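Researcher: Please predict.
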Amino acid sequence: MEIIGKIIAKLPERSGQSKATGNEWKSQEYVIEENGTYPHKMCFEVFGGDKIAQFNIHEGEELKVSFDIDARQWQNRWFNSIRAWKVERVAPETAASTAGAPVPPPQPAPAFPPEDSKDDLPF
C-alpha cells in the first residue's frame, strides 16, 4: 500500500535490545497527512537504524510512502503496525495534482449517426 502526503510530525527515535537475540534495534515514527479536501493522518514506523538514515525523513517534506500493515496480539488486545519499506520524495506539483484535484466533466458523446451523414444504414 502507499500514501502521498506531507510529514507533519517526527516522533522521537526509540531503541533497545532484543530479548530473544540480544541485538540492538532502532525505530522511528512519523505522522503523514494526505493532501486533499478531507485529509487523513497516519502514523507509520521506520524500523532499523540503516533505514532511518537511508530515508532521512524531515518534517514538511512531501513524500510517497510504501508500507505494510500487520497486527499483533498482546495481553488479549490487538495492535496495528504500519511499517514503511520504501520512501520517495515527491515534487510539490505532483502531490497537489494527485490529491483532491477536480476531475473535468465528461464530454458529451458525438451524435450517431452524424447529422451531415447522407447514409441511411444504421451501421
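Model: The mean pLDDT is 85.
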